Each structure stands twice: as structure tokens, then as C-alpha cells.
């Protein structure tokens, strides 16, 4: 960033998406921004890495409260210090999330320049991104709300478009916006590509907190009043800002495009060529992924024979593909997706069918993440199930009891301290303990390596909602 800039830019990372078109990998319980899709880092970690260095403050991240510990852990692993993590009690689209971020940033500095970006997009050319951001920040300080328009590489029908207008006076590389255009049909998209005036709408914005709030007050006063009340009623614990649930739930479900950008006279655009993708489908992921000589992109234990232009991903099971062209095959431990690449946008419709039929695979993975670690189901039968539990060093589960099940724990790696009613017992590898129905118990990892144990549950009801918590380190009830 320019050495003459007086204030650092505040990255505001919107981390509330579900990535439904990337099912079965991306699900509501563990969406695409938390997966390493394009590098060894997750998409969230890649995103915050682009906003690191002296030109930026620590990020302000807005996420669903169910993902709070995932966000905190991934930011910690990425080396991000002192982030502000704002928790939405319910999803309400981008406008309420941005309003909350702008209100919080305004408390510290009304003229703070906010860079609003999604946690799950891909950008290949970071140097070009920072150059475009510098132009956008200059326009933002002059009172503009600036978006990034990506130069289209193909007649894409899955993106909204921006029609660029006349260049702004005194701000090099920034133009006014003639119009916003909804996702076009193929013929229209081809005309846009040939005409050269239309750009993909990236969903990234740059503006000062004061400008954003002024336009929200003018164009969406009810939304801003509701979110302001939710911020004023927020509570703070650990690293989190919890927006007041009853108030925030009343906020309208609307995007910043509809609430502000399509109505404001302050909109501007920076045309840019960043190697950008919203990675919104398996076809989009194939486009940006590294490929072999036959055009195939693979991940995990995959073997191909006479396959061309395919995307094949396995999360552990050996997957073979023979004689297919333009196919997508995705294998997880509990679901398989196979389709033609041209049908990538229809995954969302398949997911709606699964939800209508009550399939838990639509929203949950077999592995479930918790603030203390994770667990995954191994076997389930009539009145019993077997799970593998992993507890991070120094962490512990809640003090709890169950009304409908008993449990048997066997330690297979690490050391455990178990509270069982009035007892406190240390277990080492290959040692076990029985927890009768109704006993008050807690599991803790006092060691410096992960604790792994096998849990065998037995009883008339084995649902996760059969938990009565008496005490919890993480504030759960």
C-alpha cells in the first residue's frame, strides 16, 4: 500500500456462506470456506493472507455463531492476531452483516476504510489485487462506494455483471457505474464479452464506515436501525462479539447490492484482472485448479484411465474413473456425487431434494467439529453406536449427563482425565471407563498431544440433544 496513506485498511471478511453447489464436500455444518480447496490452506486462511501486512489492520470477520470456534482456530493457525469475530445468530445476507461491521468499525474510526470481501473466493494475482485496492481506497476516501469489476474471461451465466460508465475525474483507474445486471442468459453473456463494457460483479467493496452508514441510513433506514440495536445489545466473550439474537433476527434478508449499491449515486468500479473466481461450483473449481495434460484436476487417492477434462476428488476412498469426459466425481466418507460438468449449477437442486427427504448428509458431515476437537460416527445400530472422539491438548468437554444412554470410553492415544460423579480418574492408552446412565461426567485432555478415544453408546435414544450441561468452558448451554 502507498506510504502516504494515513490509515490502514480494515479487512471485513464475510464468512457466512454455505457453498451449497459444492456439496457433498461443503455442507452447512462445515462449508467451503473452511476447506483447503486450492492450496494447503483453507479458503478462509487464503483470504486473510491477502489482507496481511502493514497496510491492514487485523481482520473483522462476520460469521454464523455455529462456526465461531472453527473461525477462531483457523485464524489462529494462520497467524492472525487479535481478530474481531462478529457472530450472527441467524443468516441475514450481506447487507445486515456489512451494517454490523460498519457500525463496529465506526466506533473506533468513522473514516476507517473498509475492504469488504467474501471468505470463499479465489484470487490468483495478489499484487494486482493490492494495486486495484489502492485505487479503490483513494476513491473511497473521496466518498465513493467502490466495487471490483472482474474482466470476463468467458460468457459466464452464473455471475452478475456491472456495466462500467465514464472514468471518475481525479481518480485514475476508477469508473462510475452505468448499471448492475442480473445473471444473463448465454446469448446476452456472449454479447457482454464481445462489447467490452461489462464486468463480472466480484462482490468485493471498499468504502469508509461513515459513507456506508450514511447510505444505509438514507436507503435502508429500517435495516440500519435494527442492526444498530443488535450491535448495542451485543455481548462480548472470549474473542467474540455476539449480536443480540432477538433483535438481529428482525433484520431483513437482503444483499448489499439490493439494499445500497443498485440505488446509491456514490457507486464506482475498479476494472481489474486478478484471476478471480467465486469458486461457486465444481465446474468453477475445475476452471481454476491445476490440471494434467488431459485437462483433469484431481485431489486425493484418484486413478484415471482415458479420462479427459474431469474434476475428481476423494477425501480418502480410492476412486477410479475410466473413459469419462467433462465429468465431476466427488467422494466423501458418506456420500458420492457424479455428474457432467455442465450440470454443476444443478447440485443445489439435488441438495434441496435431499433436505426434503430428511437426509442428514445434506447438512452434516460424519465428522462434527466442536471447540474442544471433533468426533465422528463409526458404527450405528439398534440401541447402540460407536464414535471416535479427538480432544485437543489442554481442552475439555462440558460437565454433563444423559437421560437415555450410558457410555463406555476406551483411550487409544494420549492421556485422559475423567470426572465421574465424585471421582476424578486418569486414563492412559488401552485403559477404559464405564459411565452409567445419569452419571455426571466430563472428559479432559491434560497432555500436550491429542487425546483419541473410542466411545460406545448404548440406550433407547442416542441423539446429540440428550445432553444436560452443568458447566462449559465455551459458554454453551
From TrEMBL:
The keyword Cell membrane does not apply. The keyword rRNA-binding does not apply. It is an enzyme of class 2 (transferase). Residues 358-472 form the Mannose-6-phosphate isomerase type II C-terminal domain. Residues 308-354 form the MannoseP isomerase/GMP-like beta-helix domain. It catalyses: alpha-D-mannose 1-phosphate + GTP + H(+) = GDP-alpha-D-mannose + diphosphate. Residues 11-293 form the Nucleotidyl transferase domain. Belongs to the mannose-6-phosphate isomerase type 2 family. This is mannose-1-phosphate guanylyltransferase.
